[in-house]
Design brief:
This protein is of the alpha+beta class and 335 residues long. Among the domains are: 80 residues, no CATH class; 73 residues, no CATH class. It contains 14 helices and 13 strands. Strands 11-10-9-12-13 form a five-stranded mixed beta sheet. Helix 3 crosses helix 4. The N terminus is likely disordered.
């Protein structure tokens, strides 16, 4: 282990007085000299040592929890489970409490002692135990020594049995949650899918993402893969809406088609701010760039609101045909 040898150097800046008699107080600067040692490597060594100390303390906590189990302390204090008891007493998340309780119920005193004395790390011992519980043999445990913790977790998943009840539980727990931010400026998307549905979404999204052109977002900056995925998901939804609009057009109900989006504009505020304020889609506020994009690529209608009371419908813009849109993008070198 490398020891950080350093000197704290204090440099006092001379106080000065400005024209109106106010004093500029001294500022204290600190610099650390590592005697030629790489400060990043020195920091890494200290972080690793701190982690070893944390593992030892976790081992001690597991040892004490084993005592709580033997003395039925969980039920004596009125808790339903050891996890609830641990989370409450230590004021930690249930996930961390579950890890401690899991090892306290499964490890023998000798193995816990090895963690406490620093021979085993807490996290790797936890991963190995879950691998064994999933059905992994000693050969799998030996193989896991060469893996990082994520690799051990995936290896355990390979051994874990999946029943019909497990499949049903996964299917029933899938969801997609789309919610707006508290400040009303953006949307958050999260969720959970089954393995099959997730793979379908991944392949479709990857294929669409490959079609998103490289767009400069700043000097020497291009769209990141994650940004391309967000754009790809949006274009997939837009194409679905376009398909419904085209079906209405073929049926002869051109004038009766619903717009893709409805833009609400607080007229006076938007005009005074050059469209940087007072423009919303639903309850989400948008800026001038988003407004230009909507007017360019989609069918939209604008509703003008005056003095928070009077509402005046604006003109409905026709959707630009996709062939024309692609032609313009090709002309501008974006495809």
């Amino acid at each position: 282990m490398s020891y950080i040898a350093g000197i704290i150097i204090h440099m006092n800046q001379t106080t000065t007085t400005d024209d109106i008699g106010q004093t500029d107080h001294s500022e204290l600067y600190e610099a650390i000299s590592f005697y030629g040692e790489d400060p990043i490597r020195a920091a890494e060594d200290r972080i690793k040592q701190d982690q070893r100390d944390i593992d030892k303390l976790r081992g001690r906590q597991v040892s004490w929890l084993k005592l709580v189990i033997r003395r039925n302390g969980t039920y004596r204090d009125g808790y339903r489970s050891l996890i609830d008891w641990t989370a409450s007493r230590l004021d930690i998340p249930h996930k961390d409490a579950a890890d401690l309780a899991y090892l306290a119920r499964r490890l023998d005193d000798e193995t816990i002692s090895m963690i406490t004395e620093g021979y085993f790390s807490f996290s790797r011992t936890l991963s190995k135990q879950r691998l064994l519980d999933a059905g992994g043999d000693q050969a799998a445990v030996a193989e896991s020594e060469k893996m990082d913790l994520l690799g051990v977790k995936k290896l355990a998943a390979r051994y874990r049995k999946m029943s019909k009840a497990d499949d049903k539980k996964i299917f029933e727990s899938q969801y997609v949650n789309l919610r707006e931010s508290d400040d009303g400026r953006q949307w958050f998307l999260s969720g959970r899918l089954t393995a099959i549905d997730g793979e379908i979404i991944r392949k479709a999204l990857d294929r669409r993402t490959d079609q998103v052109p490289d767009i400069a977002t700043g000097p020497d900056r291009q769209l990141t893969p994650a940004q391309k995925q967000a754009i790809g998901l949006t274009t997939m939804a837009a194409d679905d809406l376009d398909g419904h609009l085209n079906e209405s057009h073929r049926s002869g109900d051109c004038d009766g088609r619903e717009p893709v989006v409805t833009v609400v504009k607080q007229y006076d505020l938007a005009e005074a701010s050059d469209n940087t304020q007072g423009i919303e889609i639903g309850r989400i506020r948008i800026g001038p760039d988003s407004l230009e994009e909507i007017e360019c690529v989609g069918r939209e209608e604008t509703v003008y609101q005056h003095d928070e009371q009077k509402v005046e419908p604006g003109p409905t813009s026709r959707q630009i045909p996709r062939k024309l849109r692609r032609a313009v993008l090709a002309r501008d070198g974006n495809v």
